[in-house]
Amino acid sequence: MRIKVLGAAAGGGFPQWNCGCPNCRDVRSGALSARPLTQECVAVSADGERWFLLNASPEIRSQIESFAALHPRGPRDSPIAAILLTNGDLDHCLGLLSLRESHPLVIYATDRVRRGFAEGNVLYRTLQRFPGQVTWRALEPGKEADLGGLAVEALPAPGKPPIHLEGSGASDPGDNIGLLIHDRRTGRRLAYFSAAAAITSAMRTAFDGADCVFFDGTFWASDELIVLGLGDKRAEQMAHLPVGGEGGSLRGLAGIRAPKKIYIHINNTNPLLRPRSPEREQVEAGGWEIAYDGMELNL
Ligand code: MLT
Ligand code: MN
Ligand code: ZN
To answer: pTM score > 0.90 for this model?
Structure first.
């Protein structure tokens, strides 16, 4: 399985347009030897010919341009066979509206995420310009969907509905999922959980059986935004388990057997973005890598 990280940042990207936090300030000035990051999106393929995008970020156009394997091979063509959504957050879905140039799209999502995006959304009409412009395929926990060469299964992950749908009903296990992607030929397994408020035992089992895990690296600390004066919510209130601290994912996942472990969906405030920070050293000592735009893996 080929895996290409097209975007490794959380919503807002790095630097974020309205952010003057130390990380954003220093990456702009060049004081921080780190590269900017676009918002989370990963491409996977079994054969290097047909590609699947995990989430559709607002920066999808430049992300597709950044990777030649995703370029058209004819006058109207795309090697993108389908897009898989892990939740309805705008940093995962807005890019769909940018793919409106009259190209048939196949989108895999839970029923809950599909409805949250497509129902009552007048902008969605731009993807209904001709019959069959979008084919939705349901991701149902416990049911493997055949992607041809690859198979995918959704595993509910503790999370929440997107901010614009908060308060419009009870939360649902279909609000937020991880993707278990299995290469049928090689047997290799990828577990992709870019947003998770907690670690369930089913997630732990999946991580033990995976060759590679991507996990929510949004915040290092629970009070990261509060301490920086940038917000009043703790990480957990935003449904992101922090990486550091007693209850953080670095400790929580210390025992998992997956040989490759990568944090993704990194918020621009996160000290993990600073190359020699003590936080980054701690994470690397635990066997984790930090995703970056352009990162490539052959699983
Ligand atoms: C999140 O990851 O919590 C969301 O992307 C936040 C947002 O939609 O702004
Ligand atoms: Mn996000
Ligand atoms: Zn910032």
So the answer is: yes
